[in-house]
């Protein structure tokens, strides 16, 4: 039997595993929402028997408050399907937990930066046709109008650019760029590399799913543009890893 402890902290019965409640950003794109759901299906295949659920911060259902209410006292770990930290992780998710009276529910870290993301990005570039050693890569990441969040986005993008360059292992530079609110934009970064004499430039789309920003990433004039990360196995493994980390940290804190 599951009971609720102080400050809304669900207390699982012996041997039970908390729900993995994945929180995606949400999108007006049906394909984008479907990609989030398909990714979580891959997580279920990795973790048979684990209750994996999906909810959204905006623009799709179920909304996060609905998903929290549907837990009905069950223990859970929130895993943000966010590639970096920023406003959602710093403000929106803790605020939703407070509003639901679940302030001690474990909240996992953002997915990135992590070598598994670099592995997925490298695979997507190869699938787009970019051969090894083909020249510079522009890492197209989302930006933010929130100054604190944008600083975190920049740090995350720079770290991931280094990880991707290491993963590619062909000496090609990886240049961070931003799809909103920050500079350079991917189009500007590609144009600057062309002006510097690089004939062939690739864009690595650092996004989870199709949608408005993915369309913008594809319109830069680059020779190759990778698809969003989508249902890549490395991404599913990273979601499971973030769940495990948050669960272990929560158990350690409860002792």
Structural notes for this entry:
- This protein has helices at residues 30-46, 64-70, 87-99, 115-127, 147-168, 186-195, 212-217, 233-254; strands at 3-4, 10-11, 19-24, 52-56, 76-80, 137-141, 174-178, 202-205, 224-225.
- Strands 7-6-8-9 form a 4-stranded parallel sheet, sandwiched between helices.
- Helices cover 43% and strands 14% of the residues.
- It has 255 residues and is an alpha/beta fold.
Question: Mind sketching the topology for me?
Answer:
Blueprint: E1 3-4, E2 10-11, E3 19-24, H1 30-46, E4 52-56, H2 64-70, E5 76-80, H3 87-99, H4 115-127, E6 137-141, H5 147-168, E7 174-178, H6 186-195, E8 202-205, H7 212-217, E9 224-225, H8 233-254
Parallel strand pairs: 3-4, 3-5, 6-7, 6-8, 8-9
Antiparallel strand pairs: 1-2
Major sheet: arrangement of strands: 7-6-8-9
End-to-end gap: 20 Å
Principal-axis shape equals elongated
Low-confidence stretches: 1-15
SSE succession = EEEHEHEHHEHEHEHEH
Helix content: 40-55%
Strand tally, please? Answer: 9
Beta-strand percentage range = 5-15%
């Amino acid at each position: 039997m599951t009971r609720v402890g102080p400050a809304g902290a669900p207390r699982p019965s012996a041997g039970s595993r908390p729900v993995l409640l994945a929180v995606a950003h949400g999108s007006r794109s049906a394909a984008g929402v479907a990609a989030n759901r398909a990714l979580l299906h891959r997580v279920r295949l990795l973790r048979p028997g684990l209750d994996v659920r999906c909810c959204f911060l905006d623009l799709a259902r179920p909304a996060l408050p609905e998903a929290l209410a549907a837990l009905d006292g069950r223990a859970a770990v929130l895993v943000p399907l966010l590639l970096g930290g920023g406003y959602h992780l710093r403000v929106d998710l803790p605020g939703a937990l407070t509003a639901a009276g679940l302030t001690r529910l474990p909240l996992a870290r953002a997915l990135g930066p992590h070598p598994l993301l670099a592995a997925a990005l490298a695979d997507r570039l190869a699938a787009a046709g970019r051969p090894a050693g083909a020249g510079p890569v522009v890492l197209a990441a989302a930006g933010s109008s929130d100054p604190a969040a944008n600083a975190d986005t920049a740090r995350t993008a720079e770290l991931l650019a280094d990880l991707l360059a290491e993963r590619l292992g062909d000496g090609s530079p990886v240049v961070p760029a931003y799809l909103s609110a920050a500079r350079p934009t991917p189009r500007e970064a590609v144009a600057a590399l062309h002006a510097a004499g690089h004939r062939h430039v690739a864009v690595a789309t650092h996004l989870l799913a199709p949608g408005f920003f993915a369309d913008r990433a594809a319109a830069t004039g680059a020779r190759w543009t990778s698809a969003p990360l989508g249902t890549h196995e490395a991404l599913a493994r990273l979601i499971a890893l973030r769940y495990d980390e948050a669960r272990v940290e929560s158990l350690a804190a409860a002792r």
